Amino acid sequence: NAGVTQTPKFRILKIGQSMTLQCTQDMNHNYMYWYRQDPGMGLKLIYYSVGAGITDKGEVPNGYNVSRSTTEDFPLRLELAAPSQTSVYFCASSYGPPGGSTDTQYFGPGTRLTVL
Amino acid sequence: AQKITQTQPGMFVQEKEAVTLDCTYDTSDPSYGLFWYKQPSSGEMIFLIYQGSYDQQNATEGRYSLNFQKARKSANLVISASQLGDSAMYFCAMREGPRQLTFGSGTQLTVLP
Description:
The structure holds 2 protein chains of 2 kinds.
Chain A: E1 4-7, E2 10-13, E3 19-25, E4 31-37, E5 43-51, E6 54-57, E7 64-66, E8 76-78, E9 87-94, E10 106-107, E11 111-115
Parallel strand pairs in A: 2-11
Antiparallel strand pairs in A: 1-3, 3-8, 4-5, 4-9, 5-6, 7-8, 9-10, 9-11
Chain B: E1 4-5, E2 10-14, E3 19-21, E4 24-25, E5 32-39, E6 46-52, E7 60-61, E8 64-69, E9 74-79, E10 88-96, E11 101-103, E12 107-112
Parallel strand pairs in B: 2-12
Antiparallel strand pairs in B: 1-4, 3-9, 5-6, 5-10, 7-8, 8-9, 10-11, 10-12
């Protein structure tokens, strides 16, 4: 099992550019999450998905979009990149829903994004 | 109000000694879960240990144990016999009911040889 994989590992964008961060998991997890981690801070939830075709907003969704067409993939789209989106982005997945006995989230290695 | 508070931005411990990383939480939901994650300098988030609000006993996973004091709303992580590889940032997180995880600001642990 590769677990949760993310690409790219690093990216520099210019203001106004767009990009897609890729996330794939091979654990057959239903639940997937996108977080951002600003320097010296904990993680904040951007979007999450409870299954293919179902997504919902987290704490900081503005400036981002997601889709979930398959169980394995959960890409995060940045439209019109801004310097405030400079951060490390983590994708995570869990087998069960929050509150259940299988809700431990497993994280990918992260994507370090800089917007100049 | 902060949901998760980690009051120790940085901690030092001598190799082979035990160390306690503090975490307090705030919730009115009777059903919640508490998690600890380790983030080494390489950046990945590694799950360490989980404690459910209804669990009667403190969680343990190898050298990690969670000192769960429900009345005080604290969930401290205890690492026994510290190793150099334990040097990392440690995050406490809480899941309230069916809602999503909230993370603390983290504690940077440095293990000294």
